[in-house]
Design brief:
With 113 residues, this protein is α+β, with helices and mostly antiparallel strands. The protein has one domain: Alpha-Beta Plaits. The chain has four helices and six strands. The strands form two sheets. It has a four-stranded antiparallel sheet. A two-stranded antiparallel sheet has the order 2-3. Strand 2 and strand 3 form a beta hairpin. The longest helix has 16 residues. The two termini are 31 Å apart.
Length: 113
């Protein structure tokens, strides 16, 4: 699953007008929700500020699609997401097998060099 996201910057819901300690508290709560899925969902967050219209790209990996659905649903209720996050379109599915991806981007698996 991949989706772009940014933090809101409008009215009383401006993430960047919050103090550091408040942002830290909100992200701790958000992380606590995500840690409930340790071992089931792996997350990769890439920064894209200045590269496109979004601040981050979030990629979630799981063997069971239900785990992705559950973590996204659960974390939407965290204040950091519910009040301060903007989400782009969600894209989900396997586009390439791992070996096809490695071949396509020109990497050689360990031991094949």
């Amino acid at each position: 699953c991949f989706y772009p996201m940014s933090h809101r910057r409008e009215g009383d819901d401006n993430w960047y007008s919050l103090g550091f300690e408040e942002r830290k508290r909100l992200m701790h709560e958000h992380g606590r929700s995500g840690r409930a899925y340790t071992g089931r969902v792996l997350q990769l967050v890439s920064g894209s500020t200045g590269l496109d219209d979004w601040e981050w790209g979030v990629t979630l990996f799981a063997h069971d699609l239900g785990d992705i659905k559950d973590i996204v649903y659960t974390m939407r209720y965290d204040e950091a997401s519910a009040r301060y996050a903007e989400f782009g379109p969600f894209v989900i599915g396997m586009r390439r097998s791992p070996s096809e991806l490695v071949a396509e981007i020109g990497l050689v698996p360990a031991g094949d060099a």
